[in-house]
Amino acid sequence: MPRKEKAHGNFLADVRALIANDPLFGRVDGKMIAQAAGVVAAFAAYMLAVKGVVSIWL
Questions:
Q1: Has this prediction a pTM greater than 0.85?
Q2: CA neighbours within 13 Å on the CB side: how many for 24?
């Protein structure tokens, strides 16, 4: 099966152009990244707590 070189060749350039031209990505700063990391960590802690509660009930 032949590869489509167009799909693989300029991927990084396309991603950089998307980030440069998208207004949402242009406004990302350290505070937004920290908030997102906090949400992910809180969700992970919640899921671990739920797993612990379920294992205690069993």
A1: no
A2: 2
Domain extent, residue 12, equals 5-57
Evaluate whether 19 touches 25 at the Cβ level (below 8 Å).
Answer: yes
Number of domains within the chain:
1
CA-based torsion, 19, 25, 30, 35: positive or negative: negative
- Rounded CA-CA distance 39/35 in Å is 6
Residue type, 50: V
Contact residues for 19 (Cβ-Cβ < 8 A; gap 6+): 25, 26
1-58 confidence digits (pLDDT tens): 455 555 566 788 888 888 788 777 777 788 888 999 999 999 999 998 888 876 666 5
